[in-house]
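Reader question, answered in our methods column.
A reader sent in the components of a multi-part assembly and asked whether the whole thing could be modeled at once rather than chain by chain. We filled in our standard form and ran it. Here is what they sent:
COMPLEX SIZE: four components
ENTRIES:
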Amino acid sequence: MIASSPAEVAQGVSKIISMLPASAEVQEVYGGKDGILSTAQKGTLLLDSSTIDPSVSQEVAKQAETKGAVFMDAPVSGGVNAARDGVLTFMVGGPEGSFAEAKAILDNMGKNIVHCGAVGTGQAAKICNNMLLAISMVGTSEAMNLGIRLGLDPKLLASILNTSSGRCWSSEVYNPVPGVVPGVPSSNDYKGGFGTALMTKDLGLAQNAASSVKANTPLGAAVFQIYRTMVNHGFGGKDFSSAFVFLQEQGKAK
Amino acid sequence: MIASSPAEVAQGVSKIISMLPASAEVQEVYGGKDGILSTAQKGTLLLDSSTIDPSVSQEVAKQAETKGAVFMDAPVSGGVNAARDGVLTFMVGGPEGSFAEAKAILDNMGKNIVHCGAVGTGQAAKICNNMLLAISMVGTSEAMNLGIRLGLDPKLLASILNTSSGRCWSSEVYNPVPGVVPGVPSSNDYKGGFGTALMTKDLGLAQNAASSVKANTPLGAAVFQIYRTMVNHGFGGKDFSSAFVFLQEQGKAK
Amino acid sequence: MIASSPAEVAQGVSKIISMLPASAEVQEVYGGKDGILSTAQKGTLLLDSSTIDPSVSQEVAKQAETKGAVFMDAPVSGGVNAARDGVLTFMVGGPEGSFAEAKAILDNMGKNIVHCGAVGTGQAAKICNNMLLAISMVGTSEAMNLGIRLGLDPKLLASILNTSSGRCWSSEVYNPVPGVVPGVPSSNDYKGGFGTALMTKDLGLAQNAASSVKANTPLGAAVFQIYRTMVNHGFGGKDFSSAFVFLQEQGKAK
Amino acid sequence: MIASSPAEVAQGVSKIISMLPASAEVQEVYGGKDGILSTAQKGTLLLDSSTIDPSVSQEVAKQAETKGAVFMDAPVSGGVNAARDGVLTFMVGGPEGSFAEAKAILDNMGKNIVHCGAVGTGQAAKICNNMLLAISMVGTSEAMNLGIRLGLDPKLLASILNTSSGRCWSSEVYNPVPGVVPGVPSSNDYKGGFGTALMTKDLGLAQNAASSVKANTPLGAAVFQIYRTMVNHGFGGKDFSSAFVFLQEQGKAK
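And here is the structure of the entire assembly that came back:
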C-alpha cells in the first residue's frame, strides 16, 4: 500500500520507522500539516533513524508526548554492506521503558542496538563518532602522505602505524591510500562507501551541537572546513577517504 | 669507565648507541670538535635512537660514510613501561646490509625492530606515527567532551566509539577521560606517560619535515599549535592526554 | 512608564526599538505569548538592534508582516565610547520603503546608518565584519608576538605593519600589545572594550550562518575555537584583544 | 662585465647587493667554494635583499664578520609596480653604524628604508608582515564570500568593512572580489601581483621561525596550509588574492 501522506501512514499502525535526509524533513514529516503526529494514536512507537540535530529529535519527542506517542531517535551506522548483511549499529535515545520494544524491531536490521540515554543521545553518539572518524581519516591521510613523501613505502608505513599508538579504524580497516587495504573505496577509485557530502553534513551537525553546548572542538571545526572545501572542489560524491587525494593532489595551472 | 668526550668513547669500540634530546645535540656529539666521527674507526656501526629531524640523520650519515662508518637512525616508541619490560619498538633507517647487525643489538631492548628503508626513514615513521597519535588524541578529547556535554555517559560513549569507526588507540587504550580506562595517566591526574612538551617537540619536527617535502598537513599544523598553547598554559609536564582537560577547562576570571 | 510586558509596550506606539542578548530573546519578546506582535498595530515600525542569527530576523519579519507591521534588523557597531558620543554605526536590513523612517530614528544615536538590503542583511554585515575583525585581531596578535620573540621592538614592528600590506584596524587603532597605542584596552590591562565572551557569541553566529549557506570559512572556524578556548580559560570578561596575552602566556605548572 | 662566480664579483668592489630565491642559494653564493666571502675585502658592505630564514642571515653575517665584512639583511616589499616607480620598502637588519651607508644605496630603489635592529630583524619584520597579510587576505575572502551568500552586494559589503573595525589593506586596497577595486589582480583574472607559490614560501619561513622561538601561531599555521593546498590545486601562479576563488569554487564532479 502506498499512502498519500505521513498522516495516512500513522492512522492504522502502532509502530513507525522513519529515515529522512535532514532536520527540516523530520520536522515536516512528523509535525507538518499532514504529518505523522496529526493522526498518531496513543501509545504509538516512533523510531527515527535519520541523522539530524539532537535538539530537533528532542523537540519532536516533546510534540509526540502531547499526543501520547513515544518518539525515539535511532540513527544508524555501518554503511551499505552492513545494511545488506543486517549488521548495522543503531544508537537509540529515548525512555528506558520503551527501549525493549524498539530493540525488538531494530534487531531485524542491526547487530548492535545500543541504548544511549534520553532522547537525542542517539544523535549525540552518532555525531561524536563521525566527528572523530573524520578527524582520524584526515589525520591518517596527512600521516600517510607525509610518510610517502619522506621515502616510506605505504604498506610498510600502514603496518607500523597499525602496531603503534597512531593506529585507528581509518589506518587499519579503511586506509585512504590506494592498494594498502584491498576492497575498500580507496582501492576502487573512491567509489561507494560514505560520500564526502554526507560526511560534511554530519560535521555541520557536530559543529551546531558543539556551539549549542559551548564545547571546544578545534579539530572538529577544522575538519568540517576541509570537507566543505572538498565538496566545493568536486569531491562531494567520492568516498570521504578521498581526503588523501585532495591533500596530495598536484593541480594543473588554473 | 666514564669517557671525557664522545671522541674518547669512539676510539676503542665498533658499535655505538646514542640517544640525545634534539637535532643540535646529535650534530655536536657526532660531528663536533671532539665528536664521535673525529675518532670513529672504519666499519663502526653508529645507532642513533634520538627523535630528530630526518634530514639531520641523513647529514650525519653522510659524514659518517666519509670515515667508513655506518650511521643508522633508530628512534624508539613505547614509553617507560615498554622500556622496563624490553618491549620497545625501534624504527630503523639505514643500509639493508647493516640492518641485521643493528637488529641483533636492538633485540635486547625491543620487541619490534622494523627496517623502514634508507637513513632518515626511521625518523619519518616515528614522526608520522606521533603526528597521527596527537591528532587522534585531541580528536578523541573533543568527541568525548562534546558527547558528555550532550548528555552521554563517558564509559558508554567510549564503548560506542570503540566498536565503531571512530575507534583509535587514544579512545581504546589510553582514553583521556578520567575513569574510562584504569591505569592510564588520565586516571592518575595525567602524571607519567608522554609529556605534552615532548609531544610538542615531535609535532614541530613533523611540521619541519612537512614543509621540506611540501606535504599538506592541516590537522598536523593545527594540533601542533594546540599543544604549543597547552605548553604555554602550564601543561608541558602533564601527559599529552591532558588535552581533554585543556579543552573543557572552565577558567577563573583573569 | 514601566510596562509589564512587551505586549503592553506595543499597544500604544507606532515605533519600537529593541536590543536583546540573543536569538531566543528576540523570538520570545516579539513572537511569545505576551510578545510585541500580539498587540502591535498595523503600520508599526519595529527596529531590532540585537545581534542575532539573520534567519531569526527573517522569521520575525515574516510574522510581523502578517500583522501589517514592518520589522527591520539594525545591529550596531562601535562600542561604548561611540554610543556615548552618538557616533555608532547601524547596519539596517529591511524594505527600501521603510528605511527613511528607520534612519530618522537611528540618526539620533548613530553617525553611519547604512541600508544593507532585505531583512537579515544588517545582521549579515555585522557578522561578516566581526568575523574579519576577530581574524585580524588574532592575526595581529600572532604577528606581534612572533616579531617580538625574533627581536623586534613592538612599536617599531607596529609602525612597519601599519605602513605595509599587513596593516589593519587591529594593528593601527587597537593594537593588542600593551603600550603600542595609548588609551586602548591593551594599555589598560584589557579592561573595557569588547569582551571576549561577546566576540565568541558573534563568531558562533557567523559559523551558524556559514553552515546554512555552505560558505567555506576555515579561519573563521579556527578563530571561533580560539576565542571559545579563551573563554574556557578565564578571558571571557577581558577585551578581545587579550588574544595577545593568551597566545604568549607562559603558564605555571598545573 | 659578467663575472664567472660570486668570488670574482667580490674581488674588486666594496659594496654588494644580492637578491636570491631562498636560504640555500644565499648560503651558497656567500659561503660556498667560489662564494663572495672567499674573496670579500675587509670593510665590504654586503646587502642581501632575499627573503630567507632570519637564522640564515645571522649565520652568514657571522661568517662575514670573520672576514671583516658587514652583512645586512634587507628584504623588500611593495611588488612590481613599486619597484618600477622606485617606491619599495626595505626592512634592514644589521649594525647601527652601517645603516647610513646601506640607506644611501637603498634610497635609489626605495622610499621607506627602515632600520629594524640587529641582523635578521629585517627578515623578521618581512615575515611578520606577510603572515598577517595572508591571514587578512584569507579572512577578507571568507567574510566577502559569506556576506555575498547571505545576500549582500560585494561593493556595499566592502564599503561597510572599510569604515568599520574589519577593515584591512586586503579589504580596502586589494580586495579579492572581482570588480570591487579596479586595477588589482582580482579584477584581472588574478594575473600579476604576488603569486600564491611565493606567499606559500614566505608562510613556510614564518612557521620555521615561529617553531624556533616557540611562538604560538594558530592562524599563521592554518593559512600556510590553506595556501599549500591552493598550490597543490593549481593556484601557484595566480595572485594570492585568488584565495577568494579557491574558497567559493564549485567544482565539477571528480
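What stands out: The first helix of chain D runs from residue 6 to 11. The mean pLDDT of chain D is 94.
Send us your own complexes using the same form.
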